[in-house]
Design goal:
Homodimer or homotetramer. Keywords: Cell membrane, Membrane, Polyamine biosynthesis, Spermidine biosynthesis, Transferase, Transmembrane, Transmembrane helix. The protein is α/β, with parallel strands linked by helices. It has helices at about 1-5, 20-55, 55-75, 85-115, 120-145, 150-205, 210-235, 235-250, 290-295, 315-320, 335-345, 345-350, 370-380, 415-425, 440-455, 515-525, and strands at about 250-255, 260-265, 275, 280-285, 305-310, 330-335, 360-365, 395-400, 425-435, 455-465, 485-495.
């Protein structure tokens, strides 16, 4: 009787190898591990969709909604497997490990070599969602072999382990897996953990429920899955090098992941330097001077002893500022220390920016621009920077990512520009890179409306460059067809619209002339979209 109560399942069936409490604990542990792995797959898909396709809000919404729907479908389909719950769960976890573990590799490959990853993202979301949704019904059938609780108590335990596992997976993804392993290896490792946990549970704890043929099938499938994941992990570096060559060409000199983004530099020795941030071309030595001259020099008409640059860690905007001999101080607020480090140490990039970080007048601050401005405002209220006092900046230059990129919308909000008014000296000017008035008309004129709502008078203008795809162009040039660069700017002053022009002491410029500015201002007015509301933190309004 004692042996029967210890080793036999409460509801009959094959004898189990451990006590009921131990078996129940092992199943809940596997629930915890599978939930953590499932959330890592989910976050991996969201991150990759945002990175490869853009518009993180839309991509997150698509991935999450599709996955939740697919999980419901998976729960319904799992009913067909409950009669063979152990075997079904073992196959399900092997399939989930393979799909989830390989998802990052396949999505990157489809984007790089096929030029499109939207359908692959949706396909993986559906497939992974179905498999995740089928887990709980099968695990419910398995845990009842060991549980003497009522059904409600068993369900509560399962969902508690599931939710705690999701918490751990959700925190591990951004804080451990991505920084230490990167997207590809972290997905492969997660798949391996998933396969070991699911396969180990079934092949050991429920081995007496399996026929010899079922055990052989599960062992073979799990060994193949682990072998495939291990092989892919061993080839990750080769895959990344091939992918970079396919995207950036054969002249990649620097490729690194900082704590903020992926940074790639090509050329600089045998060809023009190009700097990519998260796959988007940010600097092209062929025509970057056209962009930076147009951004900086109109704002330098007037007092410019103290200049604040928001973004611009590459040092190229600072290079243009330092061409004025009476500049006393330049503060560069850059989120990514890795970009500034490259601007200091990479020979080609340092040559392009004129070695500005070796100039004692330049100070780099590593911070989010919004957070830094809020801190500067508080310091100004206490008698430091801001409020039009003696420590305020004569010129503020906003050299930030395109406002159409979702992650940048707070840096183009009414609240952000309100903070900028606090650090401007009386009569100071703010220059803003505002996207392309030709291809992003609503985005560009939303910036104008937002500046006006924050109390600025605005003077819109634009400039064009060589066909390189830099800045306002696409993420990468496709099919060898160049895209014409078109950069829109806003010159703003508190309460009044600054007059567009160049300073009397302007140094000799390579491309910019006063007549070009006036013509650019007239041209951009023809694209005006009227009646647009401002963008705020609680209601971002930027779009194509």
């Amino acid at each position: 009787m004692i042996e029967q109560s210890v080793s036999s399942p409460p509801r009959g069936g094959a004898r189990l190898p451990v006590r009921a409490d131990a078996g129940r604990f092992l199943i809940l542990t596997v629930v915890f591990i599978c939930a953590a792995c499932g959330l890592v797959y989910e976050l991996e898909l969201v991150a990759l969709a945002s990175y490869l396709i853009g518009d993180s809000v839309t991509q997150a919404s698509v991935v999450l909604s599709v996955m939740v729907f697919a999980m419901g479908v998976g729960s319904l389909l799992a009913k067909r497997l409950r009669c063979r719950a152990a075997f079904g769960f073992g196959l399900l976890e092997a399939a989930l490990a393979l799909l989830g573990g390989s998802s990052a590799l396949v999505l990157y490959a489809s984007f790089i070599w096929l030029g499109e990853s939207r359908y692959a993202v949706v396909g993986f979301s559906v497939a992974i969602g179905i498999l995740i949704g089928a887990e709980i019904p099968l695990l419910m059938a398995l845990i009842q072999r060991f549980s003497r609780q009522d059904a409600e108590g068993t369900v509560a335990d399962l969902f508690a382990a599931d939710y705690v596992g999701a918490l751990v997976g959700g925190l591990a993804f951004p804080f451990l897996l991505l920084p230490w392993l990167g997207q590809l290896t972290s997905a492969l490792l997660t798949g391996a953990v998933n396969a070991v946990a699911g396969g180990g549970l079934v092949l050991w704890l429920f081995r007496r429920d399996l026929t010899p043929r079922s055990r052989w099938v599960l062992v073979t499938v799990n060994v193949l899955v682990l072998a495939l994941l291990a092989t892919a992990a061993a080839l990750v570096d080769d895959f990344e090098r091939a992918a970079r060559r396919a995207v950036y060409g054969d002249q990649v000199r620097v490729a690194l992941h900082t704590g903020v983004q992926e940074v790639v530099i090509t050329g600089g020795r045998s060809g023009p330097l190009e700097l990519y941030l998260d796959g988007r071309l940010r600097v092209s030595a062929r025509d970057e001077f056209r962009y930076h001259e147009a951004l900086v020099h109109p704002a330098m008409r007037g007092p410019h002893a103290r200049v604040l640059i928001l973004g611009g860690g590459d040092g190229l905007a600072a290079r243009e500022v330092l061409r004025y001999g009476d500049v006393r101080e330049v503060t560069v607020v850059e989120l990514d220390p890795g970009v500034v480090r490259l601007a200091r140490t990479d020979p080609a990039l340092r040559e392009l920016n004129g070695g500005v970080y070796g100039d004692g007048r330049v100070k780099a601050v590593y911070a989010d621009a919004f957070t830094w401005l809020r801190g500067a405002r508080d310091a100004g209220d206490a008698g430091g920077v801001g409020g039009g006092g003696s420590g305020a900046y004569d010129v503020v230059i906003s050299d930030l990512p395109n406002p159409g990129v979702t992650a940048s919308t707070k840096l183009y909000s009414e609240e952000f520009y309100g903070l900028a008014t606090r650090v401007l000296a009386d009569g100071g000017r703010l220059a803003v890179h505002a996207g392309s008035p030709a291809t992003q008309r609503r985005t560009y004129w939303t910036v104008d409306a937002t500046l006006r709502a924050a109390g600025f008078g605005t003077t819109p203008y634009h400039a064009t460059g060589w066909p390189s795809g830099f800045a306002a162009g696409p993420d990468r040039v496709k099919d060898g067809t160049p895209a014409v660069s078109d950069w829109g700017f806003e010159l703003a002053g508190v309460g009044a619209s600054p007059r567009l022009g160049l300073a009397r002491d302007v140094p000799r410029l390579r491309s910019l002339e006063g007549a070009m500015l006036v013509a650019g201002a007239r041209g951009v007015e023809r694209t005006r979209v009227r009646g647009l509301p401002p963008s705020t933190l609680v209601h971002p309004r930027y779009g194509g």
